[in-house]
Amino acid sequence: MPGGWKRSTETDGEKLSYEPRTEESGHAELPHSPAGTPRSWDGRQSGSGDTAPHYIPEQPRRSLDEVVLPDTVRQRVELALDLVAHHTLLYDTWGLRSIDPHRRGTALNLYGPSGTGKSLCAEALAHRLGRPVINVDYAQIESKYVGDTPKNIVRCFEAAREHGAVLVFDEADSILGSRLSRVSQSADHAVNVSRAVMLQQLDRCEGLVVFTTNFPRNYDAAFVRRILTHVQFELPDLETLHRLWEQLLPEALPVDPGLDRHALARESAGLAGGDLVNVITGAAAVAARRGGESGVVTAVDLTAEIESARRARDEVGHSPEPGTPAEDTVRRLSQAEVPGSLGPSL
């Protein structure tokens, strides 16, 4: 279990939780993630005596001012913040609860192509609100042990409530996928149970939950209705690309003094901010290999990496085709993973 925490158990042996050790025990009250730790999670899947997962809040490191977005996207993000900041005014003072009586918290969905800043924006939302953030992805929730996946879902919501944290689910299409209408094995039933528990936790949650996804079409309709605002992240336009080039090139990076950011923006049309990070990193490596007086990043270096990034977008990987049944995009447990199974059928 995480250092500085103690395990507490219910008498029925079913519910497990973790509580911070007090100062009397000689440990700090709250654990701190190491600098640069990308995920707010520690521990292993429960079952077979392993420690159950625990979700640790982190302080967001990036502010919304550091996130470069097209104006249309930023306006939607600001609206999402208004929904959180003025929730009491909207629902209690202005009476929106009369038409939406069951909504306690706010759920947001950030969707769009990879590399457009969804996860970064989710962290920046927590920063703006002055709250810690708990990042959760599919691997931290899914378990091969029957009943553990729903328990993991409940645990992360409990952790967010305890610490007043913003709960962020990356790759949310894996978690919010459609329930299966044709249940043919125990694994199918487990998928439906997990979806039902997630719906229940969303209804009970009084804080902010942010989902990010590259595949929004995979969401179950019941989740779409419970999410208050959906913000589409778009590939950057020419003006946004120029701002990205201005911000992403580190001051310490040796670059050709005549580097034209406007030309780079035109050259990189169709790429996302995440692509530009890879472009700059690759070009910097080329310059480092040359070394000496030639060890500066040039327009030629960047243009070559831009073309490489564009080829990768075109030739490597693909999104599901429109109309692909959601059931075909949901991971099913293999027969060997189903408890009681004798392994793959011959």
The figure for the number of domains is: 2
Helical/strand content category: alpha/beta
Portion of residues in beta strands equals 5-15%
CA-based gyration radius: 23 Å
Q: Determine the number of helices (DSSP H or I, runs of at least 4 residues).
A: 11
CATH topology of the largest domain: Rossmann fold
Show unreliable segments.
Answer: 1-38, 44-50, 320-346
CATH class of the largest domain: Alpha Beta
> What is the CATH superfamily label of the largest domain?
P-loop containing nucleotide triphosphate hydrolases
Distance N terminus to C terminus? Answer: 39 Å
- The rough form would be described as elongated
CATH-defined architecture of the largest domain: 3-Layer(aba) Sandwich
Question: Numbering strands along the chain, what is their spatial order in the largest sheet?
Answer: 6-7-8-5-9
Largest sheet: 5 strands, parallel
- Total beta-strand segments: 9
Order of helices and strands: EEEEHHEHEHHEHEHEHHHH
Average pLDDT metric? 79
Give the fraction of residues assigned to helices: 25-40%
Please explain how this structure is put together.
By secondary structure, the chain is an alpha/beta fold. The chain folds into 2 domains: 171 residues, Rossmann fold (3-Layer(aba) Sandwich); 78 residues, Helicase, Ruva Protein, domain 3 (Orthogonal Bundle), CATH 1.10.8. 38% of the residues lie in helices and 11% in strands. It has 11 helices and 9 strands. The strands form 3 sheets. A 5-stranded parallel β-sheet has the order 6-7-8-5-9, with helices on both faces. Helix 6 links the parallel strand 7 and strand 8. Helix 8 packs across helix 9. The longest helix is centred in the middle third of the chain and has 19 residues. The N terminus and C terminus are likely disordered.
